[in-house]
């Protein structure tokens, strides 16, 4: 991992993904840049978000983080993971056994996905999540989804 990598920010990003998928029915982000000061994620999205929607996502992420959920990782055969998750962001050499990160109870997690990154042990270690800004780039001609870029912070 990079010297400036922030496990709390990364774990908060997992919860942000879960909230966005649950609230809007979109796919998980397709691009992520995790930094200690401010991070950003990009979602394929059909429209811009209103300020009220952004605040609601921020509140929901904070509600999940404040539950003190365990963050754990378990191995899963690649074949099973391919049936349950989108593996397109994994490196080709990830192997036949993948590491699945769970936020919350692995039986009914708030979030679960293949991930090679470092994480906190409990969501309380993420601190407060702040939705700093977002911008929407409309879809290119012939496409139905644009890009919603979200910038956020986590920590105390």
What this model shows, in words?
With 156 residues, this protein is an alpha+beta fold. It contains three helices and seven strands; from the N terminus they run H-E-E-H-E-H-E-E-E-E. It has helices at residues 7-24, 51-65, 78-84, and strands at residues 31-33, 39-45, 71-77, 97-103, 111-114, 128-137, 146-155. The protein has a four-stranded antiparallel β-sheet with strand order 1-2-7-6. A hairpin with an 8-residue loop joins strand 6 (128-137) and strand 7. Helix 1 (7-24) crosses helix 2. It is globular.
| N to C succession of SSEs | HEEHEHEEEE
Number of helices: 3
Strand order of the largest sheet: 1-2-7-6
Q: Strand portion, in percent?
A: 25-35%
Give a short account of the largest sheet.
4 strands, antiparallel
Q: Based on CA inertia axes, which overall geometry fits?
A: globular
Low-confidence stretches: none
Fraction of residues in helix: 25-40%
